[in-house]
Fold this sequence. Notes:
Layout: H1 6-19, H2 22-27, H3 32-38, E1 67-69, E2 73-74, E3 81-82, E4 87-88, E5 92-93, E6 100-105, E7 108-113, E8 117-119
Antiparallel strand pairs: 1-4, 1-8, 2-3, 5-6, 6-7
Helix pairs in contact: 1-3
Amino acid sequence: xxxxxxxxQVLSWRIxxxxxxxxxxxxxxxxxDGLEWAKATGEGEEDEGKIxxxxxxxxxxxxxxxxxxxxxxxxxxxxxxxxxxxxxxxIKLVWDNADQIEGRVEGQYIVIxxxxxxxxxxxx
Length: 124
């Protein structure tokens, strides 16, 4: 964590913040821009300050979840409509907007509003 390269310092800060190891966080020094970069994803914040993605039923969405579309969606910039009931696997959360996720529908990677998806259960 005491590395000369800023990306490694930022990654170390985020790991320590996630593990809630405050004594090591206090010993670590980052300049103003580095600390702002480290906090950009919400690490180190309390739950009330974090962006939380929720589906139409209020279930919390995480990276890698699978969702179902609950409405036919016209995809802007493409010549197709994402049909209701289509499964979107391995979603990615848009880190700065709680109302958007990214996922692959009909072979194209698109941004989907969380109000139009329903989280599915994982079956192993």
